[in-house]
């Protein structure tokens, strides 16, 4: 009986240890990772234990790097506006173990992603002007350590993107007064 009890306790310890460094983020978290109205606030990632490591902000591109010291995960987020109104969000998500990587990939059908062999990616087109893609880059080296890498790419064409707070519409409104010129045509 003691052997079974000690084996059971060992099993519980191993089971809890294998999930203690699990994947932190889901697709729904990646969708909320960047707030268009408050681009320097990172509430979603902060709530998941990620700390901002570095940021680079220019007029048309914003880059942020995050690290979760508990799970050893890394997130690199880049938001780009193309100058014509198109918006592109790329998030590289680095996972320290193959188990967490496979768990993330296995959950993609839950979010309606389908694998495209032709494009070698998981994709979720929402319209001809927007969509989401997830690329699996498998095992890579980063900062001298091995990580399993995923890339989340979201795009929204200029036809769907709206004005940002603080942006101005340069198109002038039409004149309010009637500007028709009356022309008198003599009768013959």
Summarize this entry quickly.
This protein has helices at 2-20, 27-31, 43-47, 98-106; strands at residues 51-57, 61-68, 73-81, 87-95, 114-116, 121-127, 130-142, 145-156. The protein is α+β, with helices and mostly antiparallel strands and 188 residues long.
List the helices and strands and how they pair.
Layout: H1 2-20, H2 27-31, H3 43-47, E1 51-57, E2 61-68, E3 73-81, E4 87-95, H4 98-106, E5 114-116, E6 121-127, E7 130-142, E8 145-156
Antiparallel strand pairs: 1-2, 2-3, 3-4, 4-8, 5-6, 6-7, 7-8
Question: Can you describe what's shown?
Answer:
The chain is of the alpha+beta class and 188 residues long. 20% of the residues lie in helices and 36% in strands. The protein is built from four helices and eight strands. The chain has helices at 2-20, 27-31, 43-47, 98-106; strands at 51-57, 61-68, 73-81, 87-95, 114-116, 121-127, 130-142, 145-156. Strands 1-2-3-4-8-7-6-5 form an eight-stranded antiparallel beta sheet. A hairpin with a 2-residue loop joins strand 6 (121-127) and strand 7 (130-142). The longest helix has 19 residues, at 2-20. It is elongated, with a radius of gyration of 25 Å. Residues 8-21 have low confidence and may be disordered.
Top keywords for this entry?
36% strand, 188 residues, alpha+beta, 4 helices, 8 strands, eight-stranded antiparallel beta sheet
């Amino acid at each position: 009986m003691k052997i079974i009890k000690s084996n059971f306790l060992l099993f519980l310890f191993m089971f809890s240890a294998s999930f203690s460094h699990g994947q932190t983020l889901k697709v729904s978290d990646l969708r909320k990772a960047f707030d268009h109205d408050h681009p320097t606030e990172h509430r979603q990632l902060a709530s998941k234990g990620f700390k901002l490591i570095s940021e680079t902000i220019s007029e048309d591109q914003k880059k942020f790097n995050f690290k979760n010291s508990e799970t050893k995960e890394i997130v690199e987020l880049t938001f780009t506006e193309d100058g014509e109104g198109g918006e592109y969000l790329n998030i590289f998500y680095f996972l320290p173990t193959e188990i967490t990587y496979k768990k993330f990939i296995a959950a993609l059908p839950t979010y309606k992603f389908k694998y495209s062999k032709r494009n070698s990616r998981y994709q979720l087109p929402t319209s001809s002007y927007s969509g989401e893609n997830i690329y699996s880059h498998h095992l890579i080296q980063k900062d001298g350590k091995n990580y399993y890498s995923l890339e989340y790419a979201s795009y929204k064409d200029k036809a769907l993107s709206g004005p940002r707070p603080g942006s101005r519409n340069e198109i002038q409104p039409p004149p309010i007064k009637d500007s028709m010129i009356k022309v008198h045509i003599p009768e013959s």
